[in-house]
Amino acid sequence: MLITDIAEMDNRILLGHGSGGQLSHDLISGLFVKYFDNPILKDQTDSAILKIDKDLLAFTTDSFVVDPVFFPGGNIGTLAVAGTVNDLAVSGATPLYLSSSFIIEEGFGMKELETIVRSMAEEAKRAGVMIVTGDTKVVDKGKCDKIFINTSGIGELLKRHKNISSGKEIKTGDKIIVNGSIGDHGMAILAAREFLNLSSDLKSDCACLNLMIRKAMGASPNIKFMRDATRGGLATVLSELTSDREFGLHIDESSIQINEKVKGMCEILGFDPLYVANEGKIVMVVDKDDAESVLDALRADELGRESTVIGEIVDDHPGKAWINTIIGGNRILDMLAGEQLPRIC
Amino acid sequence: MLITDIAEMDNRILLGHGSGGQLSHDLISGLFVKYFDNPILKDQTDSAILKIDKDLLAFTTDSFVVDPVFFPGGNIGTLAVAGTVNDLAVSGATPLYLSSSFIIEEGFGMKELETIVRSMAEEAKRAGVMIVTGDTKVVDKGKCDKIFINTSGIGELLKRHKNISSGKEIKTGDKIIVNGSIGDHGMAILAAREFLNLSSDLKSDCACLNLMIRKAMGASPNIKFMRDATRGGLATVLSELTSDREFGLHIDESSIQINEKVKGMCEILGFDPLYVANEGKIVMVVDKDDAESVLDALRADELGRESTVIGEIVDDHPGKAWINTIIGGNRILDMLAGEQLPRIC
User: What ipTM was reported for this prediction?
Assistant: First the structure.
C-alpha cells in the first residue's frame, strides 16, 4: 500500500527514503509525483519518454548547492528550475523538459522539502516546462549540507538559432544589452547568511527568463548571442565573450544598473558588483539596427523592464573586454580569478 | 591564458574551482574537456546542441553518492556512467548523450578526480556514448562527503519499443530472465568500507549493459520489459513489476545465481541477497517462445554469460511476486521496507 500524501509521512527524511524500496516509493508518489504532476512522470519508468518535433536539441545540466537553502526571492528549488531553464533559453532553445535529482541529508525536514518541491513545481509551470524524471539519494547526517539539487534540461532548437550559444555571428557594431540591475542574487544570498546578521530587504532576482527571451527573439532574427550572468557575474560573461575572438568589446560602466543596496553592501564588504552572481540577468548581443526593437520587446516583459544597452562590439583590442569606468578611467575585465563568494547557486 | 593540462593545476580542489571564473575554466579545459573529448563538449556553450534522428527520446537522471568512492570493480565515475546508460538501455533506448555534474568537497585530491574522470571517459567510450555537457560545484570542507556525481542521459527510442519500460505488453507465460549472479555490487561496497576490515576479493558487477541489451533486442522483437536491479535488489524489481498489475509472477529461488562469497557475507551479516544492489544485472521479461533465442544472445555477450530463466508470469495471485524457496516453502517478495545498506550507489 503506497502512501500518497505527505501528511502521512515521517516529518524527517530518513535514510530509507533513499533506499529504492517502500519509503522511496512513498516519497515519490506522495511528494514528487503529487507536485510535479504530469503524465510522463506518472509512468515512473526508468527513463521519461519524450517526443521532440524539431531536429535539434539543447541539453544542459546544473547542480545547486546554495547556502542558505531558503533566501529572500526564492529557494534552492526555484533556483534549480530557473537556472536550467535559463541555460536552455540563452542557447536560443525552447525549454521543454527537466529532470530533478535530490541529494538530501538524513534528518532534513519533510515540510522544508515539500516547500522546495512545491516551488519547483510552480516555477516550472510558470516557465511552461515539465519535470519528467527524477532521483533521490539520502546520505547520513553530516555527509552533505541539507540538500543539493541537480536539474538537467532538454529544449527544442530551431536550426537558424544554432549559432546563438557560440556567438559565431557576432560582428563589430553589435550592441550589448543587459535586462536590468546586476548583483542582486549574490548580495541577497550573502545577506541571508546567518552569521552576517544583515537586516536587508535585498531580494534575489532568481527567475525563469525563457518567456522574456522568446519575446526578444520574436522582435528580431538578429540576436547573435545570449548568456545568463550567474557565477562570475557580468564581468566574467563579457570576458568569456571576447576570449580568443577577433573582436573586442567596450562597456560604459555608467550604463550598468546596480541597486543602491547592492552598491552599498559591495562597498562595505569589498566586492566588485561586476563579478557578483545574478540569477535573472542575461547578456545579449544584437545587431545594432535591431537594438531598439529588442529593447522594446524586453521592456514589455516584467523581467526586462529595465533593459539597457551597456556597450558594443568593437574592432580594436580584439579578445579583450574594456570598460569605461565612472571615474573616467579604462580597465580590462578579466574572468573572476579566485572564489569571491562560494555556494551562491 | 588557460591551463590546459592537469599537471599544471593545484593538487587539491579549491573553492575557486567552483567559482565560474578562471579556476573553473582551467578545470574544465584541463580535465573534463581533455578526457571527455568530443566536438559537442568542446564548444563549452550553455547547452549542448544535439541532433536526434528518431522521433522518441528517453531521458533519465541519477545522482551517485557511493561510499567509498573507489571500490573493487569500479569507482563513483564508472558507476555514474553505467547507471545512467543502463537506465536508458532498459527502457529500450539506444543511449547517446550524457551530462555529468560534479559536487566536490574542497580539498579533494586532483589526482583522484582525474582517475574518476578518466574512468568515466573510458566507460562512456566502451558504451558508445558521449559526455556532452557538465557542471562543477565545490563546497567547503565538511559540507559534502568527497564527491557526488550526477549524470543525466538521452537516448533514441524506436516507437515499437516504447512500451518496454512500462511492461504494458506482459502476459501470462512470459519468461523472466536475469543475466547472472546477484548481490555482487552491494557486498563489494560493504566489504570495501574501511571499518569492516574484510579482506574479500569480491568485485562489483558495475558495467554498461547497453551493448548486451542490444544483442538481446536483436534476437527477439518480444522483449516485454527490462529493468536494472540496483537499489532494492532483484526482489524490489520483481515486486514493482507485479504491483497493481493483473498478473503475478513466480520465481524459483534455486535458479537464482549467487556467488558463494556473497552468500557467505549475507549469512554472516544478516542480509537477504535478493535485496542487495546490483549494478550490472537486469531483469527481462520475454515471450516464452523467444526465451531461448534471447538467452543465446545474452550469453554471447561477456556480461550475460550466466543468463538464466528464473521464473515466469502467472495468472494466479495477481499483483504478487511469489518465490519458491530452496528449503521448499513459498513467500511473497515485497519491496525493501527500510534502508538495508545506505550509499551503495
Answer: 0.94
